[in-house]
Fold these 2 entries.
Entry 1:
Amino acid sequence: GVHDLVLYPRQTVSHLRVPPSVRRLVTTWAALEEITAPGLQSLRIAGDSQTETTTCKLQLDTPQLDELEVIRPMGKIIFARGAPPLLHTLIVQDPFSPEGVSSLIEQCQRSLETITVCSKRELFERLVIEECPALLQRLQCDGPVKFRSGRCPFLDHLGLTAPTVYEPASQPPLPPQPRPPLDNTA
């Protein structure tokens, strides 16, 4: 069967059913309200540049999902049968609201290892996540993220204060420069 699939669903399609053999799916929001994909490991949903319609609630039935990337999500994304236990990577670009982002992270609390949020600074001023995912190892974002409670190894170096604010480093430190050799001939 086909393992990788790129689909541009028409505005009349609300439920997308994908065969179990498909491992990676790239699609647009269009008018989708539901995606059922039993074997899917990677899902990327992008804004539809022609119509720019984005759904307000999308239900995913994707028990095997490992990586989810959503571009310009407008409303909430919910998992039909609870969060996929293997969902390790979440990428959110240009979300319309902070609530959609925090809801997604909170649903995948137990499995997320890498979270990337690309957005305008204003979104982060209102982004609050109830609890830091327990297995989180990498958090990449364009602004501060506030965790209301809980601890995790990733945030331990920030101390114990709640709420914890994770502020991304603006510039990685430069490696030390080697000293120029002394010129003894002068």
Entry 2:
Amino acid sequence: MRTKEISILLTTCLTLVESLTKQEGLDLAKNFMSSTQLGFKANDFTPQRPLFADEVEWDWSGDLKGSGSKDDFFRVMGETWQPAVSSFLALNIFPVVDPGAGVVALAFEEVINIDGRGKGPTCLYAGNNIFTLSVDGSNKIKKFAGLWNADDEELKACLASSQGNAVTNASQSEL
């Protein structure tokens, strides 16, 4: 290839990668966190679905990893955190947007009620969390990653009580 052709190819590739602007990333962060809060409150993540690509990867603490369709992702949510958490409040949200990588990272504090939607007692858990949203060329979430301390004893106790268990030594994988 000649230098001019290589230059055009590189410019085209960089343009495709840099489709996410800082403002678009901040808007995505706001919409994602708002729809997460509403989704847990209503036990319905339907309003969040348009934010996701048709094919999604997920990777969150507790060694839950996978990939599949958007339906698969929301099925996993519906089998893990959604039935456990009745309310989700994110505080001190600190979004960081990397337009070139197409990534939005959200560091925040959270207070969540892990009561199994009434199966167990109110169990308010306060912790720190990081969500990372990687987007495709249409700025749809193609990968969701969540990072938190899955070994936190208070978190484990709340997860156990959300299942109606008095055990304080449950693991996140038992959701």
